[in-house]
Amino acid sequence: MYNTIYLDKVNLHFEEKKILNDISFEVRPNAPKCIVGKGLSGKSTILKSIIGLTKISSGEIKINNISVEDRIEFNAVVNSIGMVFEKDALFDSMKVWENIMFKSLNNKKSALIKKSQKLLKKVGLNVNDAFLYPSELSGGMRKRVAIARAISHEPKFLLLDEPTAGLDPIKTNMIFNIISNLCEEFNITMLAVSSDIKSALKYFKEFIVIDRARVHWQGSRKEFMKKPTSLIRELL
Questions:
Q1: Which CATH architecture has domain 5-80+159-235?
Q2: Which pTM was predicted?
C-alpha cells in the first residue's frame, strides 16, 4: 500500500540487553497511530530505527516497500519523511526561517522566507516570527517551528517524538490539533510517540502499547478504551 510504514519482527540489542524485541506493526494512510508506554520501554528507539538513525539487529523495516537496510534505495525515500524530535533540535545560530527551510538554504533567500512565513501561519505563528532566533521563542513556539520545519519539504510521512513534552494542557491540545489538521490537509501518514495518552486519544485512531521492549497491545482507539489491559489502565 502507498504511504505505508511496515515493521516485521524488528529486534535491536546492545550486547545482552534487548532494546526492541520482535516489534511488528503497520502504519497506513488516514490512520494516525500513536505509540505509548512507560519510560525507557523502547518507544523513541522505534522512530529512530524507522528513519535509519539506529541500525536494527534483525527483522525488517519497509517504507513504501523499500527496506531501510537498502541504503541506496532508502536515501530516496528518507526525503519523504518529516521528523519532529523531542527536544526540537532547532539550530540556535539560525533564524526561524532558516531553521524551517534548512534543507533548501541554497535557494533564493526571498522565496525561502516567503515559504517559511506561509508555514508559520499554518502552525499558528506570526509571519514576523520568521526573523527571530530560537532563544527568543517560548517552548510552545519552538515546538511549532519544529513542526513547520518537518513539513517544509512536503513529506509523505511525519514522525513525532513526544511533540507535546513539557507543555501545559492547553498548548498540548493546540499542538495535537495543528498536527492533525496538517496531516489531513497534506495527506501525510503519521506516527507519534506520546506520554500524554489522554490528549493523544482525541487525535489518533490507532494505538500501540510498548512494554519492556515488546508490543504489549495494539488496536483501535475504541478497543483501547473498551477493553483495556491492566497496563493500559495504569497508563491512563
A1: 3-Layer(aba) Sandwich (3.40)
A2: 0.93
